[in-house]
């Protein structure tokens, strides 16, 4: 009877329009590697509703603190002039100090949750550049749980408190993770001491998403950004975190505030990894996959500049709480890649701020440009308290005009034009070999303290899960690393041989195997990707 019910029409997932959902795993994209397309109605309906699930606090990253500071560019990227890779002035003009605001946060907990929570940490930076604002929004671990934005609401629902008990339940977390092997890498990080940074000053940061740097010649490279604390990295084991939480729920906020007040200004080195723009079949992972780290021996961290935080906020609500960040807030010389998480976040992040703060959230001082001035033809809307400075004629709020209105900025001499060609459909990546490999590599890279804490945390979680979930998770960990799986099984009292005997997940490639590619009803295979040299147009389109 249970099976019949599970397969009945009443259990079929639908949209809010009642349409059956035939693929809840992937955005519609042009070919496997994208880009995503705007008519992703199923995704837009899903993500925009998700953005509106809480008011007034953020749905995710609700608990946070912030500080002001500056970024100083070195004018170089590694040993090369920065202009070799990008025309963004914020990165190329040596010694220029760009004001910025940073908001650190936890992810899952509510506004008053403890900062000792085992959770990724948000690391969002707003640069007030001379070319307008640039927001770099990421976390402390350089990777994420999922690689397709359409899964984000499902992931957060599984990680948030149970809608009935209002408690975070381990079985819900692992029920989601067991179906998404790409999450194993992130879970391995989060369940180790790296999942509880000691404080915000001793924490790394990362863009997580892959961007592009574009130079004055219209040439592009893939790029991932990272923040490396000059104070060093410090993390907590579960017992260490519990001891702090017994006395202080906001220890990291207190630590950052007091350090800045006494003049002990925290500082980070800003670094970038670069890779040629293309599919990279020689790698066992897709560089656009947010669940994978780019190995630093092949793609080293190249220094770009430094960030210093030297001023606390004057008002927590006006600045920290009302600060709004978006992955689509870029400046010339920094561009989007086809990273599906980046493209989904670009809609979601700004959309949630319009809902949470209001249609004119960009007029608030913490969000408005500081070293340049906004000039738009946008008018009115809820809570508008001034009109953006217009052109010479205040009667003209449209473009084009011969009567003194605003005009377009000049085109760059050489612009970047990406060639896009492929079959439109819903795709899951076929490059999955590293789903288990990078998680295993990470386990082996930990020192004994980190490994012991990871195993203790994982074993405790498995004891709180139904047997079928615990067995599948041990199966996953064993395929990441045999010692990893064995120790979790022993710690949780799980039959390792029974776990190892499980078949691969339905619809998923076996560990170490490549997912089979999509089929096409037209009978034609996808057209080959053109080389980057052919795809690039070095003159503006006429």
From TrEMBL:
Residue intervals of the Catalase core domain: 14-407
Enzyme class label: oxidoreductase
Highest taxon of source: Bacteria
Listed EC numbers: 1.11.1.6
Obligatory cofactor(s): heme
Record flagged with keyword Iron: yes
Function text: Decomposes hydrogen peroxide into water and oxygen; serves to protect cells from the toxic effects of hydrogen peroxide.
Keyword entries, A-Z: Heme, Hydrogen peroxide, Iron, Metal-binding, Oxidoreductase, Peroxidase
SUPFAM superfamilies assigned: Heme-dependent catalase-like
Ranges of Polar residues composition bias in the record: 1-28
Record-given protein name: Catalase
Family of this protein: Belongs to the catalase family.
């Amino acid at each position: 009877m249970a099976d019949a019910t599970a397969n009945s029409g009443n259990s079929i997932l639908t949209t809010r329009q009642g349409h059956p959902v035939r693929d809840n795993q992937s955005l519609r994209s042009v070919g496997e590697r994208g880009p995503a397309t705007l008519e992703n109605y199923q995704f837009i309906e899903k993500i925009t509703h998700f953005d509106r699930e809480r008011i007034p606090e953020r749905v995710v990253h609700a608990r946070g603190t912030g500080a002001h500071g500056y970024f100083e560019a070195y004018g170089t990227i590694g040993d090369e002039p920065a202009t070799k890779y990008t025309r963004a002035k914020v990165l190329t003009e040596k010694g220029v100090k760009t004001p910025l605001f940073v908001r650190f946060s936890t992810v899952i907990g509510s506004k008053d949750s403890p900062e000792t929570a085992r959770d990724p940490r948000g690391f969002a930076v707003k640069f007030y550049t001379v070319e307008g604002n640039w927001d770099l929004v990421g976390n402390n671990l350089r990777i994420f749980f999922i690689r397709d934005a359409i899964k984000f609401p499902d992931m957060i629902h599984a990680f948030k408190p149970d809608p009935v008990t209002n408690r975070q339940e381990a079985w819900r977390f692992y029920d989601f993770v067991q179906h998404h092997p790409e999450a194993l890498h992130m879970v391995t990080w989060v369940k180790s001491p790296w999942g509880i940074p000691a404080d915000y000053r001793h924490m790394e940061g990362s863009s997580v998403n892959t961007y592009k740097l574009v130079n004055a010649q219209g040439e592009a490279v893939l790029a991932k950004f990272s923040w490396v604390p000059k104070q060093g990295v410090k993390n907590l084991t579960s017992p260490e975190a519990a001891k702090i939480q017994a006395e202080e729920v906001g220890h990291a906020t207190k630590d950052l505030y007091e350090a800045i007040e006494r003049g002990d200004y925290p500082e980070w080195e800003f670094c970038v990894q670069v890779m040629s723009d293309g599919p990279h079949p020689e790698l066992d992972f897709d560089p656009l996959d947010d669940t994978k780290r780019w190995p630093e021996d092949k793609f080293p961290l190249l220094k770009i500049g430094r960030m210093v935080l030297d001023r606390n906020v004057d008002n927590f609500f006006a600045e920290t709480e009302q600060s709004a960040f978006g992955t689509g807030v870029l400046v010339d010389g920094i561009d989007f890649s086809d990273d599906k998480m980046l493209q989904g976040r670009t809609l979601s992040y700004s959309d949630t701020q319009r809902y949470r703060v209001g249609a004119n959230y960009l007029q608030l001082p913490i969000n408005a440009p500081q070293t340049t001035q906004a000039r738009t033809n946008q008018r009115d809307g809820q809570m508008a308290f001034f009109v953006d400075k217009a052109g010479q004629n205040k009667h003209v709020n449209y473009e084009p005009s011969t009567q003194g209105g605003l005009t377009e900025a000049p085109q760059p001499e050489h612009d970047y034009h990406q060639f896009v060609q492929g079959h439109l459909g819903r795709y899951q990546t076929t490059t999955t070999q590293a789903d288990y490999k990078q998680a295993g590599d990470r386990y082996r890279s930990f020192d004994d303290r980190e490994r012991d804490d990871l195993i203790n945390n994982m074993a405790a979680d498995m004891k709180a899960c139904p047997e079928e979930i615990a067995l599948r998770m041990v199966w996953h960990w064993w395929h990441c690393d045999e010692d990893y799986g064995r120790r979790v099984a022993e710690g949780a009292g799980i039959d390792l041989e029974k776990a190892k005997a499980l078949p691969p997940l339905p619809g998923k490639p076996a560990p170490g195997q490549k997912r089979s590619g999509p089929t096409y009803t037209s009978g034609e295979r996808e057209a080959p990707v053109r080389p980057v040299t052919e795809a690039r147009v070095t003159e503006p389109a006429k």
